[in-house]
Amino acid sequence: MIEIDHVSQVFQTSARRDHLALSDISLTIEERAFVSILGPSGCGKSTLLYIVGGFVRPSQGSAKMKGSAITGPGPDRGPVFQEFALFPWKSVLGNVMYGPRQQGVKHAQAEAQSRALIEMVGLKGFENFYPKELSGGMKQRVALARTLAYHPEVLLMDEPFGALDAHTRTRLQNDLLNIWERDRKTVLFVTHSVEEAVFLSDKVVMMTRSPGRIRQVVDIDLPRPRRRTELLLDPRYQKYVVDIERMFDDSGEDEIRP
Amino acid sequence: MITGRTLLVRLAPFLACLGLLAVWQAAALALNNDSFPTALEAIRAVPAILGDKDALINILASLRRMVIGFGIAVTVSIPLGLLMGRSRAVASFFNPLLMVIYPVPKAALMPIIMLWLGVGDLSKTLVIFLGVSLPVIYHSFEGAKAVEEKMLWSGAAMGLSAVERLVRIVLPAALPEILTGCRTGLVLALITMITSEMIARQSGAGNILFNALDMGEYDIVYAMIIIVGAMGIGLDALFERMRARLVRWSEPQFDIPLSFS
Predict the structure, then answer these.
(1) Which ipTM score applies to this complex?
(2) Is the model's pLDDT at A258 over the cut of 70?
């Protein structure tokens, strides 16, 4: 589905020095897989996601989607950002309808689909609220619905629950998993939480700190549908979490915290 | 329910106005100077001016120039400011030009403009245009610059082109800031309107004011100041009402308004 081929990314720092953010990343993401990119802050994991999204051009190497080179953003890859990035002048319904309307879906049909999506993410009754009137967790639910509304083939999630409190975070993880297990889109999910990565993913890509390299790819062989209460007690889940944390500890990647 | 406190908040603006007029009245009585009429004398002269057909035509002509100058300035400045805020190339092209015009009092350009374009409507409207443009460009620029990158990325992922992103994301996202600039621009339009008529004495509200000054009709002078001031307050209140409606989505819940509306 997505092929990342020898991608490197160099940034110019404010001191006009070159900073190598990503170094020689090659990765293949299969269709309908839930893949997490896990690493300490500043390891370039978000940059990698932006390259797949087409928002950032890699300095070297290339990224392909279904065999054709990624040259810019497109509705086949839908981003969900940590900052929500909702349109503040639009209501919840207006935000969710924005994508389908842009794709030329008729107003009545776009509205019906959007209302159904808003209900699916648990925000029925909030259709006419403005983003400023919502909590962080609710905003991220709207952002997810807004992206799902234009049916991207791949979801690109950039630390989507990073700005939320622990309780809200857990609830959104559960709901995301429920939604995902229904239609199984391809998901690329950036996080710095080991538990979140193991809980959600089929595959966890571990990255090293700056310059970001792929350290190891761990397949998470846990049964689906996953239920949080069962999984937390499952020794296999616990072993994945501990093993991954140990691997980071060994290399002094100390900014990884559960 | 109206408590004593909310009643006080509502009445406060009127109390302030009454207080100001009372101080004026007392000061004028105490000084007893011909060039300083009392508040009552000035207020009494207001209906006389507004009842005079010539004066009314003059004031309406002023307003017309102001509306046209303001309208053109806003139409040109908002797109320019937004483009400057999103494109480094556009910004570095226009920046030096604007920085040269910025510190110059626009009324000081009036004599030169008069030489070229005469003392008629064109010169005065042009000066108003110049006076309004800069704050609107500046605020549009700042507003566009502050638009969250991820919001634009979200739009790009939905398939919006660069132009569509400017019109349908940058413009609405920057609207609160743009309208702040327009509000400043509106008051500046009124100021440049009067000063342009002060320099090119041919017609308009400013002309009435300064003619009265020449002839020592001080009650008319003060009455005109009251009329121009009332126009400013009225226009600002009208604009503020429209602005509040347009950017309701961005206003904080408990706001202390700085306006007469």
Answers:
(1) 0.93
(2) no
